[in-house]
Write a structure and sequence with these properties.
Length: 222
């Protein structure tokens, strides 16, 4: 089936706008996964970090906690209501920045971030390859990417992938580890490894490719 990228993006925007107010109480488990993700990050001194599809913003707070507040932490999300929740909650932190944006068109310069991460959201991205190319573009040389999501490596998850659309049309796909590897490589990222943090939930890690191959890959049509 060929997906309409913009229709999926609109469905996601409506869905997450409608869930924004109650997200923190209804989806508490995601905070546990975000803490685990942040514990795996390789954060130097004063990192500049981006959280793709940051939701209500907790991932940025956990990352800033790990560096004792040193660094600049940016989150983007396509739901303006999720962004409003994050901005209201963390308004007293002047190094946490939230923007409404699709991950497929990031409002940042090339070579800007040391670390890009994302949690519990990749299966909603309407154009995952474009999102990964954007992550590659905004990462500095040797910058690291970490994607945490449910990973469809078994028959149950593959079946769930087929049925989930009936209850959640904004869901695109849960990917297997092999599919993550292929997507990362097509976007010009060097896949490093994955780590299982809960049953079926994995963190996939990659590094920005070298400048020459990156420019060549980013200039290819999608
Ligand atoms: C399950 S929530 C996860 C939020 C947060 N990362 C967490 O772990 O709690 C999924 C988020 O993905 C966002 N999202 C979905 N597709 C997106 C896209 N193409 N660009 C930006 N955000 C997107 C939704 O608005 C929603 O806030």
């Amino acid at each position: 089936m060929v997906r309409d990228e913009h229709k999926t993006a609109r469905q996601n925007e409506e869905l997450w706008d409608s869930r924004a107010e109650t997200y923190d109480t209804r989806f508490r488990f995601t905070r546990r996964t975000q803490r685990r993700l942040v514990s795996l990050l390789s954060l130097g001194d004063n990192p500049r970090l981006l959280d793709l599809a940051c939701g209500t913003g907790w991932g940025l707070l956990y990352a800033a906690d790990r560096t004792n507040g040193q660094g600049e932490f940016y989150g983007v999300d396509n739901s303006s209501k999720m962004i409003e929740q994050a901005q209201a909650k963390f308004q007293s932190y002047n190094n946490l920045h939230f923007y409404k944006s699709r991950v497929e068109e990031l409002p940042f310069d090339d070579d800007f971030f040391d670390v890009v991460m994302s949690s519990n959201a990749f299966h909603h991205f309407s154009n995952p390859e474009k999102a990964l190319r954007e992550a590659n573009r905004v990462l500095k040389p040797k910058g690291k990417l970490y994607i945490l999501d449910m990973t469809a490596n078994n028959a149950v998850m593959r079946l769930a992938n087929r049925l989930i659309h009936k209850i959640e049309p904004a869901h695109v796909k849960w990917y297997s580890t092999r599919e993550f590897q292929a997507l990362f490589e097509r976007a010009g990222l060097c896949y490093i490894t994955s780590e299982r943090i809960f049953p079926t939930i994995e963190v996939h890690m990659a590094e920005r490719s070298n400048s020459q191959s990156r420019d060549e890959i980013l200039s290819r049509p999608l």
